[in-house]
């Protein structure tokens, strides 16, 4: 019974680590949209 719980915890930790690496290196980040009307003189940067 103890090895089943240990296996579940190991596979869960491994899945979380793989998901973190995929998100960090392969996920496309969207650029923030400008909400100041398009000019850079609004001072919101």
What does this structure look like?
The chain has one helix spanning about 1-25. It has about 45 residues and is mainly α. The chain has one helix and no strands. The mean pLDDT is about 80. This is FeoB-associated Cys-rich membrane protein.
Helix content: 55-70%
Compute the separation of the termini in Å. Answer: 56 Å
Mean pLDDT: 81
Oligomeric composition of the shown chains? single chain
| Low-pLDDT segments, ≥5 res | none
Instruction: Determine Rg (CA atoms, Å).
Output: 21 Å
The helix-and-strand class reads: mainly alpha
> Total helix count?
1
Largest sheet: none
Work out the strand percent. Answer: under 5%
- The rough form would be described as rod-shaped
Order of helices and strands: H
| Topology, number of strands | 0
Notable traits:
45 residues, 1 helix, rod-shaped, mainly alpha, 56% helix, 0% strand
Q: How does the SSE layout of this entry go?
A:
Layout: H1 2-26
How would you sum up this structure in a few lines?
This protein is an all-alpha fold and 45 residues long.
């Amino acid at each position: 019974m103890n090895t089943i719980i240990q296996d579940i915890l190991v596979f869960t930790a491994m899945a979380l680590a793989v998901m973190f690496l995929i998100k960090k290196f392969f996920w496309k980040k969207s650029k923030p949209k400008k909400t100041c009307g398009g000019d850079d003189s609004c001072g919101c940067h």
